[in-house]
Task: structure prediction
Amino acid sequence: MSYAEGKRRKGKKETIRHKTTATVFASLLIAGAALWMLGILSGDWEAGTLFSIIAYVSLSYLVAYLAAIALSRKYVSQIEKIINEAKAIASSQNVDRRIAVSSHPDELSSLETALNEMLGKLEESFERERRFVSDASHELRTPVAVMRGYLDILRGWGRDDSKLMDESLEAMSDEADRMGRLIEGLLRLARMDRDALGINAGPVGSGALVGKMIEDSQNIRKGRTVKTSKIENFKVVADKDLVLECLRALFENAVNYTGENGTITFSAETKKGYGCISVEDDGMGISENDLGRIFERFSRTESSRKINPSGSGLGLSLVKSIVEAQGGKIAVESRQGEGSVFTLQLPLVK
Ligand SMILES: Nc1ncnc2c1ncn2[C@@H]1O[C@H](COP(=O)(O)OP(=O)(O)OP(=O)(O)O)[C@@H](O)[C@H]1O
Ligand SMILES: [Mg+2]
Result:
């Protein structure tokens, strides 16, 4: 329906309402007058009294009608103001603008506040999206630039130097791997944002989870000592594969950010209605300053960039999203230079 059409229909509706009211009012008056005349002609004074009642009723109706029109005009103009401001925000595509909230606390000022809260949430989400796209393109640009650099070397003098050729191919292969992991992580995060993770939750035992991790860690421990402590037996409601994916990401971090002689310890215990599985290391630890940011996408500490240059900074943000999607939480305790404990907290089977 076009705006003009809407306006025309709206006008018609108002005319019909006015006409109906006028007709009712006129009918009451005519009926009253007729009864009064009848009363006079027949000499029956009661008909005159009846007219007075009808006249009073009609007058009250008229007063109520005028008051209602005045009140509705006030509210309609306030609603029109909200509509115009919302349209102005939509056409300017400027979500940091807000609707002016009227000083009288009523339903309409609550509507204005609710719309402003919605605009605030939209602004936050646009900002997050903008930061994510700019971080993702920055992270993807780096390996491409490195590969281009090596290709230029090989196109120039590098092809005659077999050592340089090997080095370049090795570096390009590393960068291609890094880019592959980055794209994989980005796709996984995009799927999380669409709630398309396909969680298949059921009862899973703590022993089975830790046992599988110990088994898998043989290939990725890179010489670190792996042990268990305090393994309590309990069952959590979770998707086993997704929990193992999270534990693997925590274990890989423990390996990457711990010295060659480091020790990684798995433990499992129940706390405050949650089944908690922890991965502890005695590695480089995380400063208090960085601790609040490590779950953000692409967040990496300066020292970890040197130790593990191929990391993408997406691992922990994925773990957090996966655990929270299953009604769980992730907690971390760390001291710089001493080590870290990452704990998955999952809902226990009731
Ligand atoms: N066990 C740990 N010890 C010390 N620092 C850690 C540990 N785990 C994570 N971090 C810090 O948190 C940052 C984010 O970790 P995250 O797993 O998200 O990314 P990443 O390991 O850098 O890359 P990837 O996405 O490839 O896993 C790391 O770069 C590191 O600075
Ligand atoms: Mg990691």
Q: What stands out?
A: The chain has nine helices and seven strands.
